[in-house]
Amino acid sequence: MLEPFKPYLNTRFTESQGQVSGSRLFLEVRERGYRGSRQVIRKHLAALRAGNPEPVRADIPSPRKITGWIMRPRESLTDQQEERLLEVQLACPDITRACDLARAFTNLVRNRRGSFLLEWIRQAEQDAPKPMSGFASFLRQDLDAVTAGLTLHWSSGVVEGHVNRVKTLKRAMYGRASFRLLRTRILIRE
Predict the structure, then answer these.
(1) Nearest of 101, 91, 82, 99 to residue 60 by alpha carbon
(2) % of the chain exceeding 90 in pLDDT
(3) Contact 141, 117 (CB under 8 A)
(4) For the CA atoms of 98, 104, 106, 107, what is the dihedral angle to 10 degrees?
(5) CA atoms within 13 A on the CB side of 12
């Protein structure tokens, strides 16, 4: 709760050379929208007076944001997003390698290049971060099916969608209904 107000508190503390009261600062930040307790402000001031202020947290993007930047085509990223992704990659070499492999895999999927899948799996198993190498090993278990899915134009996606819908309906009825009612509900939706 105090995080957005720390810069203001730190500035006021240095301006007054540490001679400002916690109650006064509490009233000032409350006018600015702070809804926390007076005690939190007093603890922050005590840390400032002791000379060991809490470090200001870095603005680290969430894993979901980073994943979104990696999976989107580079052309669709704004300059700021591309710059932030570069900062993250410089801070963590594992993310750089994972980013390269994820983009290569996305290229395989979008352009139906199943013939290059085995080469991608080898690269991922050799020097990728553990989650990525685990994914590659999982793909290797059913290599023929995955290669066919990435190569052929035929898909069982529509059938799988219907099976998923039927299972969802069946689960929603909690086993209380008969097969006749399940059949009726399936036919109504089509």
Answers:
(1) 91
(2) 26
(3) no
(4) 170
(5) 17
Q: What is the pLDDT of residues 103-144, one digit of tens each?
A: 999 999 989 999 999 999 999 999 888 889 999 999 999 999
Q: Which two tokens stand for residue 122?
A: 């080898």
Question: Which of 12-29 are b and which e, b meaning 16 or more Cβ less than 10 Å from the residue's Cβ?
Answer: ebeeeeeebebeebbebb
Contact 125, 137 (CB under 8 A): yes
User: Is 34 in contact with 5 (CB distance < 8 Å)?
Assistant: yes
What pTM, to 2 d.p., does this model score? 0.55
Q: What does the block give as tokens for 172?
A: 């929603």
Backbone phi and psi for residue 76, each to the nearest 5 degrees, phi listed first: -85, -5
- Distance (Å, whole) CA 107 – CA 120: 11
What is d(CA 27, CA 25) in angstroms, rounded to the nearest whole number? 5
